[in-house]
Amino acid sequence: RFRNVPQGPPIEVFALNKAFLDDPYEPKVNLGAGAYRDEKGQPWVLPVVRKTERLMAQDDFLNHEYLPVLGLDTFSSAATALLLGEDSHVFSKGLAFGVQVLSGTGALRMAAEFLSKQLKYNTFYVSDPTWENHNLVFTNAGFKDARKYRYWDPKTRGIDFEGMIEDLKSAPEDSVIILHACAHNPTGCDPTQEQWKKIAEVMEERKLFPMFDSAYQGFASGDIEKDAWAVRYFVDKGFELLCAQSFAKNFGLYNERVGNLTFVANCKEVAVAVKSQVTLSVRGMYSNPPNHGARIVATILNNPGLFQEWKDCIKIMSRRIHSMRKELRDRLEKLGTPGSWEHITSQIGMFSYTGLNAKQSEHMIECFHVYMLKSGRINMCGLNPENVDYVAKAIYDTINE
Ligand code: PMP
């Protein structure tokens, strides 16, 4: 029975993390996994999250009863409002609703499940490159036709916008287009607002379906409104769409699996039927979601004082990332590292696509114990004032190899 099961490939980012932990050499630096680290290189529990957890621990009325299949209402409605803006017209018209799911990945999986089973969609497009899990999630949910649209241009170290538009123009009707709402992973390059308008125009013309993935709201710019601009623009243009929201990064709640899947329809009546189908999907997969993390987020988003404290935390994280970008670029330039390093500071979010190739990235690991993905992606949060000189010198030496 089990004997014929073939060995699956390792998952790069988890394998890299383990290799880092097992490596006895010092100094070593982990720029692989996508998690925030403070300036001492430690995981950071947001003070507002800690405070909320303490309040919850003292609440004798909280219990461990099941949540409803679609999760905590106070969470999903606040999460949806955070994404679309509290005064969005879709709320007064009853066109949008959210569903609590298992973090961003679970949101994408539920979305893919719905699009495949209910709408019978079969083709999806991801940016080239993208967060590698998009492909696995969508094919596991039943999509047979996986395609890419051009995105990264290694020559300019920016977006190949013409290529992207050309690919969207030739996509078949009803293709699902996965779009990173902000802080594109892995490149750190987002379209400008003008470019988003053009993307929307082509998608409307070609009847393509927008599937937004919002894993970094607030993290990208420190401003939750700005980071939701693209999604809100598409909503204002009247698209029916889905958006997967993760609260792993912006609340530092990685292992609590807090996510929301937002549905925006263009007619109020369909929402009831859609919800009923999602309910059956969830029931058949994991029955109902966990409470703890979603309750933390709901408590914070629904309390003006805590909400402000959370926004302050986001600013601390995004500012630190920004300052490490500046420091890394500064040092690379001071060392006279060949090539332009402007992209390090123009990219946003947690990740930077350094432009190092697979061989160079492996060299960084083998010779300098600086762990990074083969694609050349580094997590800026892995840098801190103590290791940035070391990493810059490692990049310099690697390029001059
Ligand atoms: N989408 C993108 C683009 C991501 O970078 C991530 C996190 N690495 C996710 C979705 C989902 O992460 P999670 O399931 O941990 O919320």
TrEMBL record:
One of its GO terms (biological process) is aspartate metabolic process. Its EC number is 2.6.1.1. SUPFAM superfamilies: PLP-dependent transferases. Transmembrane segments: none annotated. Its cofactor is pyridoxal 5'-phosphate. It is an enzyme of class 2 (transferase). Gene3D superfamilies: Aspartate Aminotransferase, domain 1, Type I PLP-dependent aspartate aminotransferase-like (Major domain). It comes from Ranatra chinensis. This is Aspartate aminotransferase. It catalyses: 3-sulfino-L-alanine + 2-oxoglutarate = 3-sulfinopyruvate + L-glutamate; L-aspartate + 2-oxoglutarate = oxaloacetate + L-glutamate; (2S)-2-aminobutanoate + 2-oxoglutarate = 2-oxobutanoate + L-glutamate; L-cysteine + 2-oxoglutarate = 2-oxo-3-sulfanylpropanoate + L-glutamate. Homodimer. It comes from the Eukaryota. It is found in: Cytoplasm. Pfam families: Aminotran_1_2. CDD domains: AAT_like.
